[in-house]
From TrEMBL:
Residues 17-347 form the FAD-binding domain. This is FAD-dependent oxidoreductase. InterPro entries: FAD-bd, FAD/NAD-bd_sf, RIFMO-like. PANTHER family: BINDING MONOOXYGENASE, PUTATIVE (JCVI)-RELATED, TRK SYSTEM POTASSIUM UPTAKE PROTEIN. The keyword Flavoprotein applies. It comes from Streptomyces hydrogenans.
Length: 410
């Protein structure tokens, strides 16, 4: 049978078999793996990192995501989550509780990504998902009845896996997306923001403080470090293969605020920009995309993480039904149609927020008009519903029937 995708390197020996291969052990991949196991599907998760990431990264959970976690009993594993404040739209105050007044999860909640990943990992592996860390995917070959994934187990050697389907949950630089040849149209970056967690500094807390030279945000964490975010008006994003230097953050902060933070100790450094891309399709034969592998956007207000988790929840039961023969291919077509539409709408809103947040003096008039609109209950509720993920008819079948008991072997 001729391959349908880019050929993978040939390795001797039969590949390890499973029902679904999930590439990427972040929150999206782990939620999907757990849902597949609850439906009785064998799943292997391949992750290049040898240990979970410890950087803070995303930390905001919205109403629809909280519902999904509650349906799966995951909120009990996470423990009490503090409220995340009222929210914003492009730096303009927006109370997200307006999305669903009286809802038990109205608003937004704070949960550091490492904490969320740990809970999802324990849940998914407890259900029998196999998580293989230190496995870098290097090839993918798609046949009419299966997909063969090849890769390298770090410190060991070549490995091959075969499955009915492969799902790329491996982030904005997705190897799966590239190997399978998905089109990924969109816009290159024009705006960039630097951020860092810094110990040993005493700058005041500030939220989206606009100054003549740029935008500055600072928030003191409970451990005493300060999250710094800074954008310099007129700066042009530079190609990056890693995080910015601390000197770069120090210089930008001084230019915008006039304050010196060079005496501090950087704990974490990062940069993000307003790149906006969405896969033309989410399903290509037996290869599927979810999360940032399917869409790349500026992480404004925590929407990227929530959008990805909601992708996984919408896919899990549909893919399980297809693998087990309980339903035909229409379920995957429905996943693509539903989540592509939601993704496109979310990315449009994020592009608007990026311009409002990081634009220079030229956006002041637009910000004034938007602030006046947000004083209207109807406008505030409309935007809050979009951000919170409750602006469309909910997928009421996102929680598959659980296995008879947790811990069953795959």
């Amino acid at each position: 049978m001729a391959p349908l995708s880019r050929p993978a390197p040939a390795y001797a020996g039969a590949p390890e078999r499973t029902d679904v291969i999930v590439v990427g052990a972040g929150p999206v991949g782990l939620l999907l793996a757990g849902d597949l196991r609850r439906a009785g599907v064998r799943v292997t998760v391949l992750e290049q990192l040898t240990a979970p990431a410890t950087a803070s990264r995303a930390s905001t959970l919205h109403t629809r995501t909280m519902e999904l976690l509650a349906e799966r009993g995951l909120l009990a594993r996470l423990g009490p989550l503090p409220p995340g404040g009222p929210g914003h739209f492009g730096g303009l105050p927006l109370d997200l509780r307006a999305a669903a007044p009286g809802h038990p999860y109205a608003g937004q909640f704070k949960c550091p990504q490492p904490r969320l990943e740990a809970a999802l990992h324990a849940w998914a592996t407890g259900l029998g998902a196999r998580v293989r860390r230190g496995h870098a995917v290097t090839g993918l070959r798609q046949y009419a009845d299966r997909v063969v994934v090849s890769g390298i187990e770090l410190g060991s050697g070549p490995r091959r896996f075969a499955a009915s389907y492969v799902v790329g949950c491996d982030g904005e630089r997705s190897t799966v997306r590239q190997l399978a040849g998905f089109d990924f149209p969109g816009d290159d970056p024009s705006l960039e923001m630097l951020r860092a967690d810094v110990a040993g500094i005493g700058v005041p807390n500030r939220r989206f403080e606009r100054r003549p030279n740029g935008l500055a945000t600072a928030h003191r964490w409970p451990d005493g470090t300060t999250r710094i975010m800074v954008h310099v008006h007129g700066s042009v994003p530079v190609p990056r293969t890693g995080p910015p230097s601390f000197d770069e953050v120090v210089a930008a902060w001084a230019k915008v605020t006039g304050e010196s933070i060079g005496h501090g100790t950087p704990v974490w450094l990062d940069a993000f920009d307003d790149t906006s891309r969405q896969a033309a399709r989410y399903v290509k034969g037996r290869v599927i995309l979810a999360g940032d592998a399917a869409h790349t956007q500026m992480p404004v207000g925590g929407q990227a993480l929530n959008l990805g988790l909601q992708d996984a929840a919408a896919l899990g039961h549909r893919l399980a039904d297809r693998v087990t023969g309980r339903a035909a291919d229409a379920g995957l077509e429905e996943y693509e149609r539903l989540r592509h539409r939601v993704g496109a709408r979310t990315l449009t809103g994020i592009r608007a927020q990026s311009r409002l947040l990081l634009g220079g003096p030229e956006v002041e008039g637009l910000r004034t008009v938007m602030a006046e609109l947000l004083d209207l209950d109807s406008a505030a509720g409309y935007l809050a519903r979009i951000i919170s993920g409750v602006d469309h008819e909910p997928d009421t079948t996102t929680s598959p029937t659980p296995l008879p008991h947790e811990g069953v072997a795959a």
